[in-house]
UniProtKB/TrEMBL annotation:
Higher taxonomy: Archaea, Methanobacteriati, Methanobacteriota, Methanomada group, Methanobacteria
A GO term, aspect molecular function: protein-arginine N-methyltransferase activity
Organism: Methanothermobacter marburgensis (strain ATCC BAA-927 / DSM 2133 / JCM 14651 / NBRC 100331 / OCM 82 / Marburg)
Residue span(s) of domain Methyltransferase: 36-126
One example of a Gene Ontology biological process annotation: methylation
Keyword Methyltransferase carried by entry: yes
Keyword entries, A-Z: Methyltransferase, Transferase
Name of protein: Predicted RNA methylase
Database matches in InterPro entries: Arg_MeTrfase, Methyltransf_25, SAM-dependent_MTases_sf, UCP006607_RNA_methylase-rel
CDD domains: AdoMet_MTases
PANTHER family: PROTEIN ARGININE N-METHYLTRANSFERASE, PROTEIN ARGININE N-METHYLTRANSFERASE 7
Amino acid sequence: MKFRVTAYHQHLLRDHERLSAFYEAIASAAHGLTYDLGAGSGVLSFFASEYADHVIAIERDPRIAACAWENLSGLENVTVVNEDALEYEFKERADTIICEMLDTALIDEEQVPVLRRALRFLKDGGNVIPAAVINAAEPVMIKGGSISYDENIRAPSSGPLCVYDRVDFRGRIPEKFRGTLKLLASDSFNAIRITSFTVPAENIICGPTPMMNPPLILPLGDTLEAGYFRVKLSYKMGGGLDSVKAELK
Ligand SMILES: C[S@@+](CC[C@H](N)C(=O)[O-])C[C@H]1O[C@@H](n2cnc3c(N)ncnc32)[C@H](O)[C@@H]1O
C-alpha cells in the first residue's frame, strides 16, 4: 500500500523496527473500539483496522490529517478526525488506545498528558499500546555542555546502564519524574545519557530505533572520577527539555 505523507512522516514510515514492534503489539492486543491518538499518516490505524471493529484516528496537524484521511479512505471501519487529542470529546469508552507520541523519557512530546486524559475513556480491562516505557541512565563523557540528543555524538560510556523508572500506561500515570539515580562510573564522566525502551506489548521490548527515542545527554557541569555517584533528576513528562533538572548530589 502506498501512503501519502509529509517528509517527517516518510521517515517514520521507513523506520521498520518501530513499525514491526507496533504491528506485533496491535495484532496481539487491538480489538473492539480503538482510538489511535496522534495518528500521523494513519499507519497504525491501518494496522489496527484488521483487528478492531472501529478505529478512530485523531491527528491535530491538518496537513498530515488530510494525508491520513486519503490513506485510510478505502477502509470502512476507520474514521479520521483532525483534532487535538487533548481537546477531543470522547463519546464512547474504548477497548484499545494506541498512542505513539513517544520521546526519550517521555519529556518532549504529549504522550503523557494525552494518555492521562484519554485513560478516563478506556474500558476496564482495555489495552493501551504501547503498554509502558522503561528509562535507564549511564555516565558518559562528552565534549560541549548543553542538553542534546546523542544521535550523532555517540558519547563513550563510562559505566553500566541502570534502569531508574518504568511508566505504565494503563494505570495512574504520574505527571513528573523526580528521583535520585544511584549510578556507577568505571571511568571519568561529565554527563549522563538517558536511554528509553518501549514496551509495545508485555512480550515485546524495543530500544531506540532510527525515529524513536534517540538517547538524551544531560551534562552535569563538572568532570568526575570513577566511582559510585548520585544524580538528582527531575522533569515533567510532556513538559519539554526546559523542564529537565539534573544535578550531582
Ligand atoms: C511520532 S508521530 C507518530 C505518528 C503515527 N502514530 C505513526 O506511528 O507513524 C506523533 C504524531 O502525533 C501528533 N500529535 C502530537 N500531539 C498531538 C495531540 N495533542 N493531538 C493529536 N495529535 C498529536 C503529531 O502531529 C504527529 O503526527
